[in-house]
UniProtKB/TrEMBL annotation:
Signal sequence residues: 1-34
Protein name: EfeO-type cupredoxin-like domain-containing protein
Keywords: Signal
UniProt-listed InterPro entries: Cupredoxin, EfeO_Cupredoxin
Annotated EfeO-type cupredoxin-like domain residues: 51-146
Length: 151
């Protein structure tokens, strides 16, 4: 048997062994992710029935809601606002890295260096969910929920 064929078989055996050893870790990770997503479903339902998020100044003519960016975290992760109402978002970067607040659905985008803030006016939104994220930190997502006021 040639030396190259022995090397290929050895590499194949090592790959197989690695798969056998690591498969339980991958499965447990997948099971953990599934359990996390199942646990998040009641939270999502609760956020739908939650009251509106408090504006910064309740007496202002146009309500303003605060969002903070902090090194890979969006605070709050879910913001609930009245549908069909114009409002403002006051976004502040309280982290130690530059951030970019962005929402394609609301057509908003703002680069914020450390310690900076920006206020953006949002046109009235239909009832629904709108994503926002920090484009400089992949995977950091937030959700704005526009819902009708209870009658």
């Amino acid at each position: 048997m040639s030396h190259q064929l022995k090397s290929v078989r050895r590499a194949s055996a090592i790959s197989t062994l690695a798969l056998i050893c690591l498969a339980p870790l991958w499965l447990s990770t997948a099971q953990a992710q599934a359990a996390t997503s199942e646990a998040a479903k009641p939270e999502a339902a609760a956020s739908q029935t939650a009251e509106f998020s408090p504006p910064v100044d309740p007496d202002a003519a146009i309500p303003t809601y605060k969002i903070e960016l902090k090194d890979g975290a969006l605070l709050p992760e879910t913001l609930v606002v009245p549908a069909k109402t114009r409002f403002k978002l006051h976004v502040t970067n309280i982290g130690t890295k530059p951030s970019e607040f962005e929402s394609n659905q609301m057509r908003l985008e703002e680069v914020l260096f450390m310690g900076m803030d920006a206020t953006m006016t949002v046109t009235p939104l239909d009832t629904g969910e709108y994503d926002y994220f920090d484009e400089f930190q992949p995977g950091v997502m937030g959700k704005l929920v526009a819902k009708e006021a209870a009658q």
